[in-house]
Amino acid sequence: MYLLAANLVLLVHLLFIGVVVLGGLAVLRRPRLALLHIPAAVWGFLVEAMGWYCPLTDLENTLLRRAGEAGYTTGFLEQYLLAVIYPEGLTREIQYVLAALVVVINAAVYITLWRRLRHPRHPQHPRRPTP
């Protein structure tokens, strides 16, 4: 049961990372999602820029240990998803680059959104002839 829970947390972790990096694209279609995306993007930036340890990582490792695992060494999900979340050779310099990418990608999305909201496209309606 703990192994299943650890795998579910790992999936949530991966989805959260996806939201941080690409969630702004959903905001372009549904601007209200910014209320969820902005805090997630800020958190993702801070974790990378400050070298913080995400609480989901602690939870994953705790659940894996309770399942009798050493942590991220066995199982399908660990084998294929951990390298995405925790790539080998991850250095502080790479984390700074990742943090910058989060900012650049999301800044581009929100600038685009701001421009759309500021200058909405109106479909052209044919002018009625004046009598």
From TrEMBL:
The chain crosses the membrane at residues 6-28, 35-53, 94-113. InterPro entries: DUF2784. Keywords: Membrane, Transmembrane, Transmembrane helix. This is DUF2784 domain-containing protein.
